[in-house]
Amino acid sequence: MDILGYRLPASASLLLWAALWELVGRLGLTILVPPLSGVVVRLAEIVPTETFQDALLITARTFAIGVAIAIAVGVPAGIAMGRSAIVDRLLLPWVSLFVSAPLSALVPVTMVLFGFGETTVVVTVVLFAIWIIILDARAGTRNISPSLVEMAASYGAGRWQAFAKIYLWAALPEILAGIRLGLVRAVKGVIIGQLLVSVIGFGYLFEIYSSNFLMEHMWALLLVLFAAAFTLDATLGRLEKRFDYYSAVRG
Amino acid sequence: MSTIASLTASPPIADRRAEPSTAVAVRAVSKAYPGVEALREVSLDCPAGRLTTLLGPSGCGKTTLLKIIAGLIKADAGTVEVLGRTVCGPGPERAFVFQDFALLPWANVVRNVAFGLELRDVPKSEREAVAAHYIAEVGLKGFETKYPHELSGGMRQRVGLARALAVKADVLLMDEPFSAVDEQTRRKFQEDLLRLVAQERKTFLFVTHSIEEAVYLSDRIVLLSRRPGRIWKVIEPDLPRTLSPDQIRREPVYLDTVEAIWQNLRQYVE
Ligand SMILES: Nc1ncnc2c1ncn2[C@@H]1O[C@H](COP(=O)(O)OP(=O)(O)OP(=O)(O)O)[C@@H](O)[C@H]1O
Ligand SMILES: [Mg+2]
Prior knowledge:
With 251 residues, chain A is an all-alpha fold.
């Protein structure tokens, strides 16, 4: 961005919006938007508290477990679909259905099945993240050059060897792209799950803050979550780039 | 069969035995894809320790036949015997060299060359020693830690060849291995291949589009007819291998064989 011949860093626009937020907050137009400075002060205040730390821990744990399950199940499932026409025909309708379904509507159902606890949140995370991971792993596997598959067969690779030494690596760029998208969806899943369960983690905090109209607290919490989601995505994006070099040359 | 080629003459080089046994025997193999009859009752023999070439018009089923011998495709009818055993899938006595190299892009030259051995759970130090030997053999010393995308087409195919040699298969199946490399590299490759045939005492089955290449390299040329592929003619060029490459290419027997095959194939073009 250039203004009056000066080159401004990308963060400049962020500063502009921060200033606007502060202004709107100070004008006192609505109780919903407190000044940014107040939010930041509140942020520094609540982050060290035990309730916040607990919420963070629960959120991180359910997120990590859910994502781990989604990857551990989704990647092999996607590769199996990409390699086997039968598996593909069996699973594809369901995967395509769920990848675009309004999954939030399913959370109450999982709540009935798994109760008001961490399990429901983990299930929600898996439910949000897994489908795109499966689809991308499938697409990557279908892109593997047929001669690479024949090479594996002609040198006597077994099923497991072909999976671990060839398919997984050959489809890695797509798999990583799928995991990245899956993680972004998983963030949604962990928040929506917690909000609906609302007795654990950040969902619990949100419940308390909103029922007591603690807007500064709410915004502070949101800032934390947005920053976390953004950092996660950026880190994965960088990781993905490192694998790009051979996706171009794998033929 | 024409006079320039002879089925009975003994090869001029001493280490090529006069009566080689049959390494690959194809018996009445037929294969049809949905809507396409690719091969019809093909029978052929590849003498052990020699280089046999499959030559024929595009789409006549050369790749299909080679893959059936490799055990990658099942024939609809007929059998293939390699070293006396009936083929029912890929096996360690056969190795395939792919037209598009089929290298692992994420693995360096050493790992690619050693990959066949890696699949057989040969210990790392052992397989890398074997790989190093064949990397030198195909003239890639110094490129061990390079990745495929850092190599030229010719060098990549050398990696593919070294990988096939490293598993110590008796029969090497090569599908147009030099078609993706430039003419200079191709000539160099042909010399290396001739040296390998003499030195490694392996059986080579080679697919090419080039009549000159077939005549120059082969002990036996199998001409396939247009699709559905059938055996059209078997020719055994008897080149004086003691001469230099350029001299061989000026020999009447070389030129006449090329011409005779061209006359045979021309019917399909016209
Ligand atoms: N998987 C397949 N499904 C359907 N048809 C196929 C398949 N593979 C090959 N064919 C057809 O079978 C015929 C023989 O194919 P093949 O690849 O064996 O020929 P080729 O002699 O190797 O040809 P080229 O010289 O072009 O490499 C061709 O007409 C091809 O279109
Ligand atoms: Mg072919």
